[in-house]
Specification:
This protein is mostly helical and 102 residues long. It has helices at residues 2-13, 17-20, 24-46, 53-81, 84-96. The longest helix has 29 residues, at 53-81. It is elongated, with a radius of gyration of 16 Å. The two termini are 18 Å apart.
């Protein structure tokens, strides 16, 4: 998940055109949520045997809401506002980041 967040933030969120098309507030919210989710996962790892269903359900709901913001707000806005060349550049930036260890 850490690599996923890193990829999003470095390849997409930090791209200059995003400031121009007015998605900075959404991106700031998503970045804050990344920090919260990583902290939650670290806490889970420290005490995995005592994670209750309520905590897992809460994390799941938070993650799902995060995903919905990306899929229903951010990415459609990017798709409609960015020029084809800008989209291509973002995709190339994402592809430059290694996700798997070889």
């Amino acid at each position: 998940m850490r690599k996923h967040f890193f990829s999003e933030e470095n390849a997409i969120f930090n791209a200059a055109p995003l400031k121009i098309i007015g998605v900075v507030d959404v991106i700031d919210q998503l970045k804050k949520e990344h920090v919260i989710m990583l902290k939650d996962l670290e806490d889970f790892a420290k005490d995995i045997q005592n994670i209750g269903g309520e905590k897992m359900e809460s994390f799941h709901n938070f993650l799902e809401n995060h995903r919905k913001i990306e899929e229903m707000t951010l990415y459609p806005k990017l798709d409609s506002a960015l020029q084809p060349m800008q989209k291509k550049e973002l995709i190339e930036r994402v592809n430059e980041i290694p996700i798997k260890n070889k």
